[in-house]
Amino acid sequence: MTLSALRVAIIVFPGSNCDRDMMVAIEQLTSRRPALVWHKEASLDAADLVIIPGGFSFGDYLRCGALAGRSPIMNAVLDHAARGGAVMGICNGFQILTETGMVPGVLIRNAGLKFSCRNVGLRPCETLASPFTAGLDLGEDLTIPIAHNEGNYFADADELDRIEGNGQVAFRYAASDAGGPVNPNGASRDIAGVLSSNGRVLGMMPHPERAMSKLHGGTDGAKFLLKSLEALVS
Amino acid sequence: MQAIVNISLKEGVLDPQGRAISHSLNDLGFSEVGDVRVGKQILLEIDETDPARLRQRVARMCETLLSNTVIEDYSIDIPDEQ
Description:
The complex is a heterodimer.
Chain A: E1 8-12, H1 19-30, E2 35-38, E3 49-52, H2 72-82, E4 86-90, H3 92-100, E5 106-108, E6 116-124, E7 142-148, E8 152-154, H4 157-165, E9 169-174, E10 191-195, E11 201-204, H5 220-233
Parallel strand pairs in A: 1-2, 1-3, 3-4, 4-11
Antiparallel strand pairs in A: 5-8, 6-7, 6-9, 9-10, 10-11
Chain B: E1 2-9, H1 16-27, E2 40-45, H2 51-66, E3 72-77
Antiparallel strand pairs in B: 1-2, 1-3
């Protein structure tokens, strides 16, 4: 399969605001426009990758991602994942994935109580087999922006030990040229991204679709997305 | 019937909001204030007359949507039950 054959679906909720940015980013890399799928849809056309984009779905009411996680389309996304389909959730998408239990843990209020919007260093970790980490170099940190108020990754100590032992930690925050504290939000063990137990679902706080060109201030988002897409077609 | 759901953070879960409130109260002269935890209360008006059935349904609502049991505990109060 070639990149242009890759079928990507992006789920859109009321309050999603990175859906179009992600569509443009994926199209830039694959030359094929992803499908935007409204959350009221009950089914999903066959897809090689489903992306839950960033934003403030349902105004973050109740808990970030809680209402979106119970939207009609999520049953179809859960079925897709249960069949081994690939799913990537960015920022609010990560919060939604934790609310559905597709990835472990939960994202709570930033420890500093401030919305955090800046570039962060991102260290790829040694993981179980996953299309999202297969092409990444362990020694090569990425610089990708974050923009969130609830990115403080939490799980109890036993759960953290378990996911670390399973190789489910995809990324940790790392020092970067961008400066600032290494850990921008108080996340347990500096965790910035986690995988499901089968490696096919990734949730991460940083926004790769916002680091796609020099005009964005960096291209590491494009590098990460391209490696993931290439792993999915190989 | 009305059901009142109280949701609180589990012990051991950091509550940055509670910590900020504690600091502010201390700054305002309420120096006796130590740990502060913030929860939420959800009032539900439900078309149901049997308190036992109501409690069971509301517990399911808590497990399904109203609380995230990874970090939160919930309790259900039914004022008309007494």
